[in-house]
C-alpha cells in the first residue's frame, strides 16, 4: 500500500508540477506580448513623427510593472529609438529574428520581441526584458508536492496499521493453521472465528472447508482401500489373461503352421492339377489334330465335326484350368500397394486388344488422371477382365464404344467401365460375380465364367467393392472402388 501510494503521489506530483510550470510560462509570455502590443500601439505616433521623448514617456509607464526590468523601442531601421530601464539594465541586444514567437529564456530572465504594425506596415519593434522566477516557482511546487506526499504517507501508514490489525493478522493466523493442517494431517483443527465482519466470514468458511476436507479424506481413504482390493483382483485377472493369451498364442502359432501346411498342400495340389490335367488334355488335342491332318480323307464330315468338337472342348478345358489356377492365386497372393495410374493402364490393355482385332471399329474414351493405390499385378488382372468383357460383349455393334471414367454417385465416387454391348438382365445380377456363372450363350460370347469372380476377389482384397448396372442390348456399366493414393504419393 505504501509503495502504491508513493508511486501515485510521485506521478501525480510530477504531472502537477509540469502542468503548473507550463501554465506559468504561457501566462507570463501572454502577459508580456499584451504589454508589448499596447506599448507598440501607443508608440505608433511617436515613431511616425520621430518623437523620441513621447516614446520614452510611454516606456516609462512600465515602472508600474516591476517584473519588467527593461525595454527598448527600435525603429524600422533597427536603431534604438527609446529606452527604459528599471533593473539596472542599460542596454538590450538587438534580436536576430522578430516575430510572434521571438522569445528567449535566459536563467531567471525572459526576453521578448514584438513587431509594431500600423495598417499592415511595419514601423519598428519593441524588445522587453522581464523577470522570470522559474526556479522559485519550481521550488514552491516541489515543496507543496512533498508536503502533500508526506501527509498522505502518514495517513496511509495509519490505514495500513489498522488493516494489519483487522485483516492481515487474522489472515496470517489462518495461514499458520493451514500449514499445521498440512504438516500434521489433522483436519480437526479449527481457527478462532473472531468478529462477524468479512474476516470472520472468511475464517468460518475456512473451518467449514476443513470439516469438508476431513469428511472427504475419510471417504477417500475408504475408497482407496476398496480400490486396492480391486487392483489386487484385477492383477490376478491380468495374470490369468496373460496365461490365456499365451495359450491362445500357442494355438494361433499351431493354426498358422497348419494353415501354412495347407497352403503348401494347396500349391502342390494346384501344380498337380495343372500338370496332371494338362498332360491328357494336350494328348487329346494333339491326337485329334493328328487325326484331322493325317486321316482327313478317311473321315466324313460328321467325323471331322466330332474331332473339331473334341479339340475345342480340350482347349476350353485348358482355359478353364488356367482360370481356376488364376482365381486361386488371386486369393493367396501377397499385396504390394503403390500408387497406380488406371488411365495409363487401361490405355495399354485396350491397345493390346486393338492389336489382336485391328478390323474392329471401337471408340475409346478414357478419362485422364484416374489414380488409385493397389497391387499393380492384381489391378492389371482386374482391368484386363473388365475391359476384356467390354471389348467382347460389344463385338456385335457396328460402332462399339468403351468408356472409363470416375463417377460421383449417392455412395460417393467410383470408377466406371461402360460399354454399349449386349448388356444383361438385372434380374440375374446376383449371379454375375459367381464362379462359372454365365448370363450369355457360350457360342455367342465364349468364356469360362471365372473372370468376374476374379475381379470381385481382387477388388475386395483391396478393401473395395464392385457392382454392375445394365439393360439387355443397351450395354453395361461396371463400378468399383479402390483406395485413393495418399497426398504425398506414399502407397503405405
TrEMBL record:
Residues 227-265 form a coiled coil. InterPro entries: BphY/WalK/GraS-like, CHASE8, HAMP_dom, HATPase_C_sf, HATPase_dom, His_kinase_dom, HisK_dim/P_dom, HisK_dim/P_sf. The chain crosses the membrane at residues 6-21, 142-163. It comes from Marinobacterium aestuariivivens. Pfam families: CHASE8 (PF17152), HAMP (PF00672), HATPase_c (PF02518), HisKA (PF00512). GO terms for molecular function: ATP binding. This is histidine kinase. It is an enzyme of class 2 (transferase). Its EC number is 2.7.13.3. Keywords: ATP-binding, Coiled coil, Kinase, Membrane, Nucleotide-binding, Phosphoprotein, Transferase, Transmembrane, Transmembrane helix. It catalyses: ATP + protein L-histidine = ADP + protein N-phospho-L-histidine. Residues 165-218 form the HAMP domain. SMART domains: HAMP (SM00304), HATPase_c (SM00387), HisKA (SM00388). PANTHER family: BACTERIOPHYTOCHROME (PTHR42878:SF15), TWO-COMPONENT HISTIDINE KINASE (PTHR42878). It is found in: Membrane.
Amino acid at each position: 500500500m505504501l509503495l502504491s501510494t508513493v508511486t501515485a503521489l510521485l506521478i501525480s506530483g510530477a504531472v502537477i508540477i509540469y502542468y503548473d510550470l507550463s501554465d506559468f510560462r504561457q501566462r507570463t509570455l501572454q502577459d508580456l506580448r499584451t504589454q508589448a502590443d499596447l506599448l507598440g500601439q501607443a508608440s505608433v505616433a511617436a515613431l511616425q513623427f520621430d518623437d523620441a521623448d513621447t516614446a520614452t514617456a510611454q516606456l516609462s509607464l512600465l515602472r508600474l510593472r516591476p517584473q519588467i526590468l527593461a525595454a527598448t523601442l527600435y525603429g524600422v531601421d533597427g536603431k534604438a529609438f527609446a529606452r527604459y530601464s528599471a533593473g539596472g539594465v542599460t542596454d538590450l541586444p538587438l534580436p536576430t529574428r522578430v516575430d510572434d514567437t521571438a522569445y528567449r529564456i535566459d536563467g531567471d530572465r525572459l526576453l521578448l520581441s514584438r513587431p509594431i504594425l500600423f495598417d499592415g506596415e511595419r514601423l519598428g519593434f519593441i524588445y522587453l526584458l522581464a523577470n522570470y522566477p522559474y526556479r522559485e516557482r519550481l521550488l514552491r511546487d516541489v515543496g507543496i508536492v512533498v508536503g502533500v506526499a508526506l501527509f498522505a504517507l502518514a495517513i496511509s501508514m495509519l490505514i495500513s496499521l489498522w488493516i494489519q490489525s483487522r485483516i492481515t493478522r487474522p489472515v496470517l493466523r489462518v495461514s499458520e493453521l493451514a500449514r499445521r493442517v498440512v504438516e500434521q494431517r489433522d483436519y480437526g483443527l479449527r481457527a478462532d472465528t473472531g468478529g462477524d465482519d468479512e474476516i470472520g466470514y472468511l475464517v468460518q468458511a475456512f473451518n467449514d472447508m476443513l470439516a469438508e476436507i476431513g469428511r472427504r479424506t475419510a471417504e477417500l481413504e475408504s475408497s482407496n482401500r476398496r480400490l486396492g482390493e480391486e487392483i489386487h483382483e484385477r492383477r490376478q485377472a491380468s495374470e490369468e489373461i496373460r496365461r490365456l493369451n499365451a495359450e491362445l498364442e500357442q494355438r494361433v502359432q499351431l493354426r498358422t503352421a497348419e494353415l501354412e501346411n495347407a497352403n503348401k498342400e494347396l500349391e502342390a495340389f494346384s501344380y498337380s492339377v495343372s500338370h496332371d490335367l494338362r498332360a491328357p488334355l494336350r494328348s487329346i488335342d494333339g491326337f485329334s489334330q493328328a487325326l484331322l491332318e493325317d486321316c482327313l480323307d478317311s473321315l466324313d464330315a460328321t467325323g471331322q465335326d466330332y474331332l473339331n468338337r473334341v479339340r475345342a472342348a480340350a482347349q476350353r478345358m485348358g482355359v478353364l484350368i488356367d482360370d481356376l489356377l488364376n482365381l486361386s492365386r488371386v486369393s493367396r497372393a501377397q499385396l504390394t500397394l503403390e500408387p497406380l495410374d488406371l488411365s495409363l493402364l487401361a490405355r495399354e490393355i485396350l491397345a493390346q486388344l486393338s492389336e489382336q482385332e485391328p478390323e474392329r471399329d471401337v471408340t475409346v474414351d478414357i478419362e485422364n488422371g484416374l489414380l488409385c493405390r493397389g497391387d499393380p499385378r492384381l489391378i492389371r488382372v482386374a482391368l484386363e477382365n473388365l475391359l476384356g468383357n467390354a471389348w467382347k460383349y460389344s463385338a456385335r455393334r457396328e460402332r462399339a464404344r468403351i468408356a472409363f471414367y470416375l463417377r460421383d454417385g449417392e455412395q460417393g465416387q467410383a470408377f466406371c467401365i461402360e460399354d454399349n454391348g449386349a448388356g444383361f438382365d438385372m434380374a440375374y445380377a446376383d449371379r454375375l460375380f459367381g464362379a462359372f456363372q454365365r448370363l450369355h450363350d457360350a457360342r455367342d460370347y465364349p468364356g469360362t465364367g471365372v473372370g468376374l469372380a476374379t475381379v470381385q476377389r481382387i477388388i475386395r482384397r483391396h478393401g473395395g467393392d464392385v457392382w454392375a448396372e445394365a439393360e439387355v442390348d443397351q450395354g453395361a456399366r461396371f463400378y468399383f472402388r479402390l483406395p485413393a493414393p495418399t497426398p504425398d504419393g506414399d502407397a503405405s
